[in-house]
Amino acid sequence: MDIPQYMEQAQRLLMGAFPNRLVCLGIQGSYARGEAAEGSDIDLVVILDHVEMADILGYRSVLDRLPEREKSCGFFSGKEELMAWDRGELFQFYYDTRPYWGNLEFLRPLLNRRAVARALHTGACGIYHGCIHNLLHAQSMEVLRELYKPVLFLLQAKCWLDEEIYCSDSHTLLAHLKGMDRAVLERRADIRSGGAITEKMLLPLSNHLLDWAVQILAGYAEKSAPAQK
Q1: What is the percent of the chain where pLDDT is above 90?
Q2: What is the pLDDT of residues 159-191, one digit of tens each?
Q3: Is pLDDT of 72 > 50?
Q4: Which of 25, 81, 89, 109 could bridge 101 with an S-S bond, Cβ 3.0-4.6 Å?
Q5: Which secondary structure element, helix H or strand E, spans residue 57, and what is its range?
Q6: In 87-198, where does DSSP find H-type helix?
Q7: What's residue 225's pLDDT?
């Protein structure tokens, strides 16, 4: 996929469909991080001034005219709605988006440490629950692979909180990590690469992920709590 050419075509179609209304066109996910494989989704980010039903249908028409429609994914929203979004989710959204046209700088004042800590803590809660549920019921390596996916995003948030640095890719992030944080990201890379990972490793890999989630829960519960009035 020639992403620059794809984005140029997307910009042209969007500006034709929504004249003077496009706030930001960007890309997220594996293409933004330079980790895309042949079957990777194309995670477009399209922000208009606001969004109504006619705009959703108009954007669908734009997607239908872009190549590899079946891989289209991403985020479509109005600026007004996005500014009212959960602050914790906005942190990852802002940093994971590589703008191609326009920008998301209007979101930067909304990103605060308590919101990011809440996002980190909530993510760890989800991993903890998912690991235990998988071990009790599905006992599936595929489910475990999915549970390891958000580890990258949560460690990016943790690094930002601890060192005030945002690392856009796993290789850069790894250099800033140590101990259990580093080990869990390395295990995520092993699982992602599809290396020598077998069903027999379900228990040890689950145990390691659970231990890491517990560490995050203990370390960030108070930091993520709502401010006292």
Answers
A1: 79
A2: 999 999 999 888 999 999 999 999 999 999 988
A3: yes
A4: 25
A5: helix 53-64
A6: 87-96, 113-133, 141-148, 151-163, 170-174, 179-193
A7: 65
Distance CA 183, CA 42 (A): 29
CA pair distance 205, 170, nearest whole angstrom: 19
User: What is the per-residue burial (b if ≥16 Cβ within 10 Å, else e) of 114-140?
Assistant: ebbbbbbbebbeebbebbeebbeeeee
| Half-sphere exposure in the Cβ direction for 43 (13 Å, CA) | 16
Residues sharing a CB contact under 8 Å with residue 68, sequence separation 6 or more, in sequence order: 1, 42
Q: What is the chain's mean pLDDT, rounded?
A: 92
Name the β-bridge partners of 28: 43
The CA distance from 220 to 160, in Å, is 13
Which pLDDT score, from 0 to 100, does residue 229 have? 47
